[in-house]
Amino acid sequence: MSKYGFVASAVLGLAVCMCGNLSAQQAPPDDGIPVHMLVTVEPRHGTDVPEVKREEVMPFEGKTRDQVTEWIPAQGDRAGLELFILIDDGSNSSLGTQLDDIRKFISAQPASTKIGVAYMQDGIAKILQNPTPDHDQAAKTLRLPLGMPGINGSPYFSVTDLIKRWPASADRREVLMVSDGADPYYGAHDTNDPYLQEAIDDAQKAGIEISAIYSPGAGHFGHSYWQTYWGQLYLAQITESTGGEGYDIGFTGPPVSFTPYLDDLGRRLTHQYFLTFLAKPPKKATWVRIKLRSEISSVDLVSAEKVWVSPEGK
Length: 314
What we know:
The protein is of the alpha/beta class. The chain contains seven helices and 15 strands. Strand 6 and strand 7 form a beta hairpin. The radius of gyration is 25 Å and the shape is globular.
């Protein structure tokens, strides 16, 4: 090789290296927006829940599959849970026969679970016990509902009030509603109840799952098919939208026992994961609908239906 050829090759090589280094330095960081969700793994048949690995989780925005960056079991040092039991003060007195079932459920929770107790009253969540690891203390605060028709206002006022006053936490946050779900403040009966929608949006933004056990209200409306029908639809809507579970949706009488529903809820709480994935960066803050799928055909991944995503991060 001539001297000039050697120099030219050296210069070209140096230029390539410099360009490569420049490209590496100027390459934009991953432009996905980290989104965090709480996910419950449910078996499609039976009660056995197989382990689901990170690579087997597929979040979709429409037809676009997003990249999963974290899939962490809510176990060990991540098992922390704050669970509020939110009871409708307008419930029928028959709820009194279920209080022992709720007390037993509270006592059976692991030490990593903090229990709070509140009652829906006058459109607020009247907190009798903030989340505490002292389960005996939480169980003692349970009382009979006042049983006065309409005293709760809209149950969804109380849900919104509770969420807005609940400090953020690195632990899971979940609510168990006990209510007939009926909303006397919304005159029309349809799925566009603004108070229900506000409660759903607030829960989804806060990453709070809401489950519910139907319990009839006091007075005439407590056995009105029209009221109970729509109340149960509303309970189904808030639980499905936030990734929770609705129990005994579809009948008007009080449950014989809460125990089967509370046992199921307890199992669900032991099969939850923290999911983080990268969503497409939006031009402005917006709701994004998410569909979760798994490569394991025997399970369902249950989560909130949508997440709030902003260009600055969720």
